[in-house]
């Protein structure tokens, strides 16, 4: 059965969903975008109408509609979810047919997995995680809710990523490191030791710039 879908955010992640809606592992019928950018209202983006502000979610609550948070930035995504978490929606996962997912990988809800991604066994991915193109996750990794991985992130086995972490393009980890909640890892950084809460690290090896 085809699920009706609202996309929250008509930016890069939302447009990826809209343009590639037939390339995921279950069928959807897109109703439209919701976005707080007034310049996008009453326009058509990726053949999908922009219906208005995100607050219009309240009009669709309880109507057997699926929602995808088409937002890459962890802090914005979590803030919006917290604001509307009392509403009644389905939050399916959007997993590209061109991703390789090992057996014994577990997902929460509302995740977006781009093509070219590989995820090895016994890895756990919690709610509303975005994993962009060509990322590689080793065995026994864990990624907590709302975190986002930019393209070509490589996680060695047993890497642990906390809530609302942002991993920049091409960043990598060695085995067993812990990246704590709300941290930001710069593009191309190599993480060789644990990163504390809300820290910002860059470079090879990755060092704090806070």
In words, what does this structure look like?
With 210 residues, the protein is mainly beta. Helices cover 11% and strands 29% of the residues. The strands form six sheets. An eight-stranded mixed beta sheet has the order 6-9-12-15-18-21-23-24, with no helix packed on it. A five-stranded parallel beta sheet has the order 8-11-14-17-20, with no helix packed on it. It has a four-stranded parallel beta sheet with strand order 7-10-13-16, with no helix packed on it. Strand 3 and strand 4 form a beta hairpin. It is globular, with a radius of gyration of 17 Å. 36% of the residues are buried.
Task: Give me some keywords for this one.
mainly beta, 29% strand, globular, five-stranded parallel sheet, 210 residues, 24 strands, 3 helices, 11% helix
Give the topology.
Layout: E1 3-8, H1 12-19, E2 28-34, E3 44-45, E4 48-49, H2 57-60, E5 66-69, H3 74-84, E6 94-95, E7 100-101, E8 106-107, E9 112-113, E10 118-119, E11 124-125, E12 130-131, E13 136-137, E14 142-143, E15 148-149, E16 154-155, E17 160-161, E18 166-167, E19 172-173, E20 178-179, E21 184-185, E22 190-191, E23 200-202, E24 207-208
Parallel strand pairs: 1-2, 1-5, 6-9, 7-10, 8-11, 9-12, 10-13, 11-14, 12-15, 13-16, 14-17, 15-18, 17-20, 18-21, 19-22, 21-23
Antiparallel strand pairs: 3-4, 23-24
Largest sheet: 8 strands, mixed
The number of helical runs is 3
- Structural class of the helices, strands and pairings? mainly beta
Q: Report the span from N to C terminus.
A: 49 Å
Mean pLDDT: 96
- Cα-based radius of gyration, to the nearest Å: 17 Å
Number of strands: 24
Proportion in β-strands = 25-35%
Order of helices and strands: EHEEEHEHEEEEEEEEEEEEEEEEEEE
What would you call the shape?
globular
Low-confidence stretches: none
**Level of helix content?**
10-25%
Please state how the strands of the largest beta sheet are arranged side by side: 6-9-12-15-18-21-23-24
């Amino acid at each position: 059965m085809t699920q009706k879908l609202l996309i929250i955010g008509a930016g890069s992640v939302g447009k990826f969903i809209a343009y590639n809606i037939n390339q995921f592992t279950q069928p959807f019928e897109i109703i439209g975008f919701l976005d707080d950018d007034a310049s996008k209202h009453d326009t058509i983006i990726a053949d999908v109408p922009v219906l208005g502000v995100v607050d219009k979610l309240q009009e669709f609550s309880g109507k057997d509609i699926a929602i995808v948070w088409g937002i890459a930035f962890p802090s914005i995504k979590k803030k919006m979810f917290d604001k509307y978490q009392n509403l009644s929606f389905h939050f399916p996962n959007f997993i590209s047919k061109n991703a390789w997912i090992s057996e014994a990988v577990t997902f929460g809800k509302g995740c977006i997995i781009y093509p070219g991604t590989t995820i090895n066994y016994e890895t756990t991915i919690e709610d509303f995680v975005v994993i962009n193109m060509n990322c590689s996750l080793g065995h026994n990794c864990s990624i907590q809710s709302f975190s986002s991985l930019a393209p070509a992130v490589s996680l060695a086995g047993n890497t642990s990523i906390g809530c609302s972490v942002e991993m920049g393009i091409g960043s990598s980890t060695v085995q067993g490191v812990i990246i704590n909640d709300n941290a930001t890892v710069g593009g191309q950084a190599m993480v060789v030791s644990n990163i504390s809460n809300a820290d910002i690290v860059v470079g090879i090896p990755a060092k704090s710039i806070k």
